[in-house]
Design brief:
Elements lengths: L5 H10 L2 H10 L6 H11 L5 H4 L6 H11 L6 H9 L25
């Protein structure tokens, strides 16, 4: 038995339409490909508020787009990697300093 999560199921839908998914990653517009939009709409219909389903008090395109973003499916893997490490100091940088924070010089053995 394989445990599947929502993100896996939605990723499978997106991967059926690789060109449309690439365009979504580029411009964020999920409505350009009608088949993909309809499949995502049907998938999320049960969770979507009724007023949003009928576009009375919410936009289903916006709701689906926000849900894809919540699942992390609107961010490229390389963007995630950059964001994850942005602003962090090398965890081993302290090994190149003495107790006063003075540089010991790279490659120098004591």
């Amino acid at each position: 038995m394989t445990l599947r999560f929502e993100v896996d199921e939605v990723r499978d839908i997106l991967n059926k339409y690789p060109e449309a998914y690439a365009k979504i990653l580029d411009d964020g517009d999920i409505y350009d490909n009608e088949k993909l939009y309809e499949e995502l709409y049907e998938y999320f219909l049960e969770d979507m508020p009724y007023g949003t389903q009928k576009a009375r008090d919410g936009d289903p395109v916006e709701w689906i787009t926000m849900r894809l973003d919540d699942l992390g499916l609107l961010t490229l893997a390389e963007d995630i990697s950059k964001d994850k490490h942005q602003g962090r100091v090398d965890v081993h940088s302290h090994l190149d300093e003495d107790e006063n924070g003075m540089s010991l010089g790279k490659g120098r053995l004591w």
